[in-house]
Amino acid sequence: xxTTADSHLLTGAYALHxxxxxxxxxxxxxxxxxxxxAEEVREFTETASKLGLAASVSPPPGFKDAxxxxxxxxxxxxxxAVRATPPRRRPRAVHWTLAACxxxxxxxxGTAVWQGQRADEARTEARAAQDRAARLDAVLSAxxxxxxxxxxxxxxxxxxxxxxxRDGAVFAAAGLPTPPAGKVYQLWFDVDGTMRPAGLLPDxxxxxxxxxxxxxxxxxxxxxEPEGGSRAPTSKPVAxxxxxx
Length: 245
Known about the structure:
Blueprint: H1 4-7, H2 11-15, H3 21-31, H4 35-54, H5 63-69, H6 92-140, E1 146-151, E2 157-163, E3 168-174, E4 183-191, E5 194-201, E6 206-209, E7 219-226, E8 239-242
Antiparallel strand pairs: 1-2, 2-3, 3-6, 4-5, 4-7, 7-8
Helix pairs in contact: 4-6
């Protein structure tokens, strides 16, 4: 059975339900007359709750080792409550361990927020990809679809598929030369002589749904642009094709 002095050291164990029934009952009697211990129990219970919420989140590799290595350098913040009669000071190792637990809980909480944000971003990206795939399929299967294919002077072949009813166009490339480092193929709609950006071609071979409406366009082109694309063509077209009417 713990003495009255030892009872001041049991706040963490009580908050984690780690005491034997007899010790728990004795500590509760002590806590009823010790405001400082009651305050520490409340704080430790909040910390334990945060740890519980973060338990399902996997910390970054090596994070636990880094935290454990810093235990000897982290000190616990003092309790907010003012003790009427200061109890015996905890051993320094207890302070370090509790401080490390708080630091770990805060870090894991931040990791949980970060992973939640990444999950939201992944879901948004997945929905966008599904939407693009559905629109591409709608163009390819449209009853009024028209196809034009031509060889590219630099090598390879380009094909454009247009549906005025679906107000969309699909571009397919096969065997185009790999663009130089730091460059990418960019697609364009020719609207009244002005080239309007219509998306990027991720690879020298592949099929993409062109961005924007082809309704007012009479032709489409492909140029080599800096990664990320340009607002207007900065090079001569490697392919220029009239859109089917």
